[in-house]
Design brief:
The protein is of the alpha+beta class and 332 residues long. The chain has ten helices and 17 strands. A hairpin with a 3-residue loop joins strand 4 and strand 5. Bound molecules: adenosine monophosphate and magnesium ion (MG). Magnesium ion binds next to helix 8.
């Protein structure tokens, strides 16, 4: 009898707290941590990992077998595309146009010249940058449903949007398997499915752009939260910091008055593209862009450490630690 009670007790306990399945992997040049709640979690995580590997194999700029590599080395000839690459390119090109080229997925020759692809960092001469910028123009990308044609000197880099798209695909996969609660952290691209198993929202921390600790926390559910920051990838030379987000107008790291920007919306691809674009735009243009669209929210940290937060997310955002004393402006 006593044994039966213990078993029943365990069953009841497991009934109210679904099992958490977690895996950590290195993909798309970042550490990813995936947590899925529910009984079939382990199988679903394996499916997620395989989906990530497939998408990485399509989108990588350095993998000689990827579709993007093939396009970049096509010498002006059309290349056929899988549905995933075609879908991501379409969304990315729409964002390039809508952000007036603050996002430009043809920035690859410039990204490579700075060494951000290989880690062999250097500071290109102004003349070299001017030459390379002639190759940067997303309007030259010819895309239809199944194929892509790039002029011979134009090269793509999907680094600004690939993780957001991957998060969307994983959330759709999990939803189709009946999962109702999951947290997927793909580096700075965080994707939530439903709420926590107890019904409360997820607490998503925003990293401090100082490098250690957190600047704040967002309480959200069923959405993506994507951050771009100058602290995420950079090198230093002669006391100067050079980061990986470049202004397509100048070819140099964007100095727009922003230390980091976090975008919150249902669509992860949009969040990822906008996090990069709004970092390039700076606070004033970012605010104007938000006022025109209002289909996403953001938390932006200015160079002086002050916060600019859109009205739609202000109640769900709390600064943390020493950041609580920083100015916070709500944009409405
Ligand atoms: P994210 O971390 O999402 O902001 O994306 C930054 C990555 O996108 C960089 O590592 C580059 O590969 C690429 N990139 C940098 N600047 C731009 C830009 N202005 N538009 C599009 N891609 C960019
Ligand atoms: Mg991005």
């Amino acid at each position: 009898m006593k044994r039966l009670c213990v078993v029943l007790g365990l069953l009841l306990l497991s009934g109210c707290a679904p099992t958490a399945h977690t895996t950590t992997l290195l993909a798309m040049d970042t550490v990813m941590e995936l947590t899925v709640y529910g009984d079939g979690g382990a199988a679903e995580l394996a499916e997620c990992e395989s989906c990530i590997r497939t998408l990485e194999g399509l989108f990588s700029v350095t993998d000689a077998n990827s579709e993007i590599y093939a396009a970049n080395h096509s010498g002006g000839q059309p290349v056929s595309l899988s549905p995933d690459t075609a879908a991501l390119l379409k969304d990315a090109l729409d964002l390039c146009a809508d952000t007036d080229g603050a996002l430009d997925i043809t920035i690859y020759p410039v990204v490579r010249a700075w060494g951000f692809t290989t880690g062999e960092y250097r500071i290109p001469e102004a003349g070299e940058l001017q030459e390379l910028l002639q190759q940067v123009d997303y309007t030259k990308v010819a895309l239809d449903d199944t194929s892509l044609c790039l002029p011979s000197n134009v090269e793509l880099d999907l680094g600004a949007v690939a993780k957001g798209y991957t998060g969307d695909r994983l959330i759709a996969l999990l939803r189709a398997r009946g999962v109702t609660s999951a947290l997927l952290e793909l580096g700075g691209s965080v994707h939530t499915l439903g709420a926590k198993p107890d019904g409360s929202p997820w607490s998503i921390a925003i990293q401090s752009p100082d490098g250690a600790g957190y600047a704040g926390v967002l309480e959200v559910q069923d959405c993506a939260v994507v951050t771009s920051g100058g602290y995420q990838r950079y090198f230093e030379k002669d006391g100067e910091t050079y980061w990986h987000i470049l202004d397509p107008a100048t070819g140099v790291p964007a100095h727009s008055g922003v230390r980091s920007v976090t975008i919150v919306a249902a669509n992860g691809t949009r969040c990822d593209g906008l996090s990069t674009a709004l970092f390039v735009m700076g606070p004033e243009r970012a605010a104007a862009y938000w006022r025109e669209h209002r289909d996403f929210d953001f938390v932006l940290i200015r160079d002086d450490g002050s916060f600019l937060v859109t009205a739609g997310i202000a109640e769900q955002f709390s600064p943390l630690d020493t950041w609580q004393t920083h100015d916070l402006e709500i944009l409405s």
